[in-house]
Amino acid sequence: MTILVIAEHENGAIAPATLNTVAAAAKIGGDIHVLVAGQNVAAVGEAAAKIAGVAKVLVADNAAYAHQLPENVAPLVGELAANYSHVLAAATSNGKNILPRVAAQLDVDQISEIISVESADTFKRPIYAGNAIATVQSSASVKVITVRATGFDAVAAEGGSASVEAVAAAHDAGKSSFVNEELAKSDRPELTAAKIVVSGGRGMQNGDNFKHLYALADKLGAAVGASRAAVDAGFVPNDMQVGQTGKIVAPQLYIAVGISGAIQHLAGMKDSKVIVAINKDEEAPIFQVADYGLVADLFEAVPELEKLV
Amino acid sequence: MKVLVAVKRVVDYNVKVRVKADNSGVDLANVKMSMNPFCEIAVEEAVRLKEKGVATEIVVVSIGPTTAQEQLRTALALGADRAILVESADELTSLAVAKLLKAVVDKEQPQLVILGKQAIDSDNNQTGQMLAALSGYAQGTFASKVEVSGDSVNVTREIDAGAQTVSLKLPAIVTTDLRLNEPRYASLPNIMKAKKKPLETLTPDALGVSTSSTNKTLKVEAPAARSAGIKVKSVAELVEKLKNEAKVI
Prior knowledge:
The structure holds two protein chains of two kinds. By secondary structure, chain A is α/β, with parallel strands linked by helices. Chain A contains eight helices and 18 strands. By secondary structure, chain B is α/β, with parallel strands linked by helices. Helices cover 28% and strands 31% of the residues of chain B. Chain B has seven helices and 13 strands. Chain B has a nine-stranded mixed beta sheet, with helices on both faces. A two-stranded antiparallel sheet of chain B has the order 2-3. In chain B, α2 (69-78) packs across α5 (188-194) and α3 packs across α4. The longest helix of chain B is centred in the N-terminal third of the chain and has 15 residues, at 37-51. Chain B is globular. The termini of chain B are far apart. In chain B, 50% of the residues are buried. The chains are: A alpha/beta, B alpha/beta. Chains A and B meet through α3, α4, β7, β9 and β10 of A and α3, α4, β7, β8 and β9 of B. β13 (176-183) of chain A pairs antiparallel with β9 of chain B.
């Protein structure tokens, strides 16, 4: 059994979610190979070779793979997949974009966002916004799986010594091209990798009021997230959304401010180690999952909290 | 330009589902069903493209039970011109749905296919990408902006780090994210008019598509419950607890 893990990388570095995906592969068992596809990614390939538990790194360095266009990357992965028992990618916007395309090419069903490995062919995954957990078995010759990073503790980024092999295959479907990217600029930690997350909901009332959360977050070294309601209301951009259809986080400490606690939001954060809720409505459902609840006006409590931590 | 929109009948957004006692699935008896929220956004986008004069015809398709006609009528009331139901009482996987949609695409030859990025029941986030692969089309997933010009479409996508814009040759597949638009409500006159719009019913057999699956759901369980903690009386007490009891700051 040999497993292929699609590396997630940005700006010449391996993204943390790749380490969680390798951890899921290690739970399945067998040799682990990592594919690094992109343009000018030799350094990423070197970094991937150091990941603990990886036996071989395949580097597909080609202009067609720049920006991870799925029309070009999926045929590459589909071609390589014939040699593997499993193909895994992190359930990031990139993994979600590419992997179903690979599964369809291979004529197999995909298993999305697994949170545990029961055996080499059986996995658990949340459905209905995490209100139910399904155990799914795959009979596919190649099992195509995306991995929810919060379900698996990351393997060490250093310590491995995998061989590195170049893949010559160039697939350029010529159907799509990259136009531009507008990346959120922030000195704060990335939402899905942060140890502490401070999130705001509709109770923040407007986007400007998020400054209170930014100040608190900077004091704590935290990332800032938001509920769907806050994104829908236009307070903050979608890349801050935590929930069923946004990002899934499981930090050491999650501070929910002015968030009522709709099931769709809980789906994205209820695996956090410690949850704090600050809300003036003592009946808010968020208090049912919070370890520490504070019934208070957030505009008084958050500045005070910032002073005291 | 013809636009095809796929919609799914799912449990309503506001329903908190319960797992069946025999762990065979979730209990959907007597539960309110609606159009998947991301599919509503897909219908709205198609209607806006028609209002802008970009789309000439909107065909809405659903794969599901007979009752999915309700969701198709809703889409017709919102502005779709005609509907197709591929009737199947079975719970189909995303790949099976993508294969059925591919057969409809072959028949209808749309320039643009718009789908929701994810259904809120299975939470798979697969069908659009799979349809793109099977059709050999380009895909613009998680769209927050769609601009058709000539024989291509520019799609701005919600990605983890911000937004990315790609240019896709038509025909192409688009899957919708939250901020693409805010769906309208159907007016009563339009609901009445929708009853007279054409709705064609097909079957997987008639389309020559096998819906067999490599996935098997062994059981469905309720998640481990998280118990409520305590209420603190002040910010000072909260900070004390976080420092000395939880030890997380």
